[in-house]
Inverse folding.
């Protein structure tokens, strides 16, 4: 079967690498995943193919994907009549139980049909009319928690119709009970960790510190990586359980394996720390850690930025932060001193570590006072951002002379 995993712009290559790693890691337990193939990263996503286990594995284990779709039809839709006719031509009885509920997500770009709600309505009508003509009844509509979520992407007057196997965005891990203002999405946090090279740092026994952790998204995602916790393990609803082609036996086996391979021994997990000066943020982070089953594996503490320091005994690690950058919280002029403090903190207290800052402001990035070794373009919603990474050399090395030229990917 063919599948498509969506993600935010800028994260496609990272997602492709992750999917290949997921399939390779699981192949020893599930040999059928040796057949899974990851295609070339596309615009805002990655195609892949293989048995149904590959799609389930992507849903359960991908930390980067937004959605996992199974494409079912593609057709020209230059007008409402063609959209309705093309959607009605699909054999919906192969996918949907008329006694269940549905919702249609519709996106349109560079097409004659410009209104997404109108497009969703026409598609829904086509589905329901076809099923009613065959079965004498039709599914109900549930926009919040449908049994089946149909995804339609209309681009250049061509419609791509798919079933959303996750049933909603996979960034929703199921652990977030509380959040602060402008929370970072979980899959973006995971991408930041991957691009910040947390995996090799973790393998080397390095620690992680987020000095402005808010409700704890980055440290909690790091803890899920460090404990080998499947990001989908805490989700309570999936879009494939009511899908007529669902294979419960395969899914149950993958789920059982994910529960078995978690490593929840604090002695085997390097230090992961989140600081924040806001006591309400720390309370929210602690509640989220409890909800994620990660209590005792992440240390959250109320602490001013200037008081942030590396955990005792850890000479290497990742200092990673998503500070405000003027788009949603604060103002660039007001935030400039904060970025200077971030640079000073990294230079003075985290020598020998790797640093990482996600920002949507080039002007504020200059205030850090350090030369980035790499810059990765990522999107936080509609905001184009840069993940700047720094080599925080220790000893007598001069960072200005030692750092490689900045590159961008």
């Amino acid at each position: 079967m063919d599948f498509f995993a969506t993600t935010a712009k800028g994260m496609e290559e990272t997602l492709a690498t992750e999917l290949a790693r997921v399939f390779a890691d699981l192949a020893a337990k599930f040999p059928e995943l040796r057949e899974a193939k990851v295609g070339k990263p596309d615009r805002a996503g990655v195609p892949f193919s293989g048995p149904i286990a590959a799609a389930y594995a992507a849903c359960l284990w991908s930390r980067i994907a937004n959605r996992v779709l199974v494409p079912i039809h593609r057709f020209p839709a230059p007008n409402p009549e063609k959209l309705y006719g093309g959607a009605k031509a699909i054999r919906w009885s192969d996918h949907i139980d008329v006694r269940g509920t549905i919702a249609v997500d519709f996106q349109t770009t560079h097409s004659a049909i410009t209104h997404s709600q109108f497009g969703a309505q026409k598609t829904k009508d086509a589905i329901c009319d076809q099923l009613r003509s065959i079965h004498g009844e039709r599914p109900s509509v549930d926009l919040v928690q449908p049994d089946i979520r149909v995804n339609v992407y209309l681009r250049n007057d061509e419609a791509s119709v798919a079933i959303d196997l996750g049933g909603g965005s996979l960034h929703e891990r199921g652990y977030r009970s509380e959040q602060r203002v402008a929370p970072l999405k979980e899959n973006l946090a995971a991408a930041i960790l991957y691009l910040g090279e947390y995996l090799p740092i973790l393998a080397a026994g390095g620690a992680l510190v987020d000095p402005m952790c808010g409700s704890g998204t980055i440290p909690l995602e790091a803890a899920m990586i460090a404990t080998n916790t499947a990001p989908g393990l805490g989700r309570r609803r999936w879009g494939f359980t009511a899908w007529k082609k669902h294979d419960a036996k395969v899914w149950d086996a993958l789920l059982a394996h994910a529960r078995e391979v978690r490593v929840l021994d604090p002695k085997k997990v390097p230090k992961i720390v989140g600081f924040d000066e806001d006591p309400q943020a720390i309370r929210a982070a602690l509640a989220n850690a409890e909800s994620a089953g990660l209590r005792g594996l992440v240390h959250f503490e109320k602490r001013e930025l200037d008081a942030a320091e590396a955990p005792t005994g850890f000479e290497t690690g990742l200092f990673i932060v998503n500070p405000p950058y003027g788009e949603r919280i604060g103002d660039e002029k007001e935030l400039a001193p904060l970025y200077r403090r971030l640079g000073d903190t990294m230079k003075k207290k985290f020598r020998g570590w790797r640093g990482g800052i996600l920002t949507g402001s080039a002007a504020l990035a200059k205030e850090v006072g350090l030369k980035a070794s790499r810059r990765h373009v990522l999107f936080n919603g509609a905001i184009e951002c840069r993940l700047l990474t720094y080599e925080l050399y220790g000893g007598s090395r001069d960072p200005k002379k030692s750092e490689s030229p900045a590159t961008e990917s």
User: Anything to note?
Assistant: The two ends are 31 Å apart (CA to CA). The chain has two domains: 2-164, 186-228+263-408. The domain at 2-164 is CATH 3.30.2130.30 (VC0802-like).
